[in-house]
Write a structure and sequence with these properties.
globular; 180 residues; alpha+beta; Immunoglobulin-like; four-stranded mixed β-sheet; six-stranded mixed β-sheet
Length: 180
Amino acid sequence: MLTWPRRTRRRAAVILLWLCCLSLTAAHCDSGQVEDVLGYVEIDGRPVVYAPLCPDDEVRGVRVYTAPDPKRGGDFVPLWEAEGPTTDDVRRGLFVLGDDRQFSTVTRPPPASFPLRLSVHADTGHDRSVGEARERPADLPRYPAGTPLAELTFDTKRGPRSAAQLQEALESQRACVRGG
């Protein structure tokens, strides 16, 4: 009779558990999560995030977490949560990181400063969430207050991108198709 060593059985059980978790995660991600389309700039000395949106959508709230180091793992810890945008810029996806004045309701006040490794999510009116986890650079492209969105070049995971290019990245994920 063939018996497998205890270590091999344990590894097989861990792999099976990991595959089950992965399949549950994949099923969950089909519910409107959009990845890798956020852009970062500095406007008037403050970090700003741009989340492109579908034409019929608007930001309803934001959630920001610390993102664990991918090599060491860990938990996503909530840092800032707010909803009810008070400006058109925020409703269109452009918001200052941690500025409570942009929202009517703050459920978790922001920290005094944000770490560089963040997970940022913009929740929209159509149950979509535009977000990503990444380490933002300490040195962002800088612009004065009042610079039009079309003139901003954002730092992204894939290098410098305009708002139009980020919009194309969103649409390439078929995020704006009804029901998907």
